[in-house]
Amino acid sequence: MPSGANAFRRLFSEIGTVDAVGIEERVAKYGTRSIKTGSKIAGLKLATTMVDLTTLEGKDTPGKVQALCAKALHPHDDPDIPQVAAVCVYPSMVKHARAALGTKAPVRIASVATAFPSGQAPIKTRLAEVKAAVADGADEIDMVINRGTFLAGEFGRMQDEIAAVVEACGEATLKVILETSELETYDNIRAASFLAMRVIRENDFIKTSTGKTSANATLGNNQVMLDAIRDHYLDTGVAIAMKPAGGIKSAKQALTFLVAVKETLGDEWLNNRRYRFGASSLLNDLLRQLVKMKTGTYRAAYEFSEAAGSY
């Protein structure tokens, strides 16, 4: 068996490493792109359709989840403002979300699972949690990898665990959370992306973060993962989706992330089947900007309902 260091060397020689300076220079330019009024409105609406509206708190209640679902279906009283992509809740709250949304609502139900956010539980426990969430009505599962397994170079074990979750999901979409802040380097983020993509299905997701650590989604780690998705697609023809999560709070940030998607992967990824924002607090700023673009006046923040969480 190769040591952990040897396992990393072999993988890096196969998939290549990341030019960290080049990544930072590239993402710095995204924010300088000029977006005209019509394109800005379209981008704000598109970003709204990509939000996973989330509450992941120990004090979550069925009533709070019901309110979350109501906001997901009707983010604002302006009928021109679209619905969000999904609501995201803990497994115990999936049944309440399903009751609130019904069976035919366009808003999907996502649930974090596999001992979120640590991933530190026996695999049998993690798989049971996935199966329970799906049985209660989850359309999507956001799993966390066991980062210790990856950092130890136990790549086969990491992939076997992801593959087991894929099977437990059945028809539910899977999002694999890498927790990029704990992977330490861009090279490791690229490596973990490839390992996950090789065992998930087309239009399953790789995802930056749980939103529960001190560092979450950045343009840099988002770019590393977009590049990995592009390279994997060119090699295999399998299109993998992407979800940055945590720390994206302003409409301006969201538009910059969408510029990165367009310039790296093209228009085929500019939809909520292939790109999401795990950032509930983002939604209200998107709404404020859309109202301002329509009326010419900023509405006070208190006129918008509080975001459900900080995810």
UniProtKB/TrEMBL annotation:
Family under the similarity heading: Belongs to the DeoC/FbaB aldolase family. DeoC type 2 subfamily.
Gene3D superfamilies: Aldolase class I (3.20.20.70)
Protein name (record): Deoxyribose-phosphate aldolase
Chemical reaction(s) catalysed: 2-deoxy-D-ribose 5-phosphate = D-glyceraldehyde 3-phosphate + acetaldehyde
Enzyme type, top EC level: lyase
Pfam families hit by this protein: DeoC
Keyword Lyase annotated: yes
Pathway: Carbohydrate degradation; 2-deoxy-D-ribose 1-phosphate degradation; D-glyceraldehyde 3-phosphate and acetaldehyde from 2-deoxy-alpha-D-ribose 1-phosphate: step 2/2
GO MF, one annotated term: deoxyribose-phosphate aldolase activity
InterPro entries for this protein: Aldolase_TIM, DeoC, DeoC/FbaB/LacD_aldolase
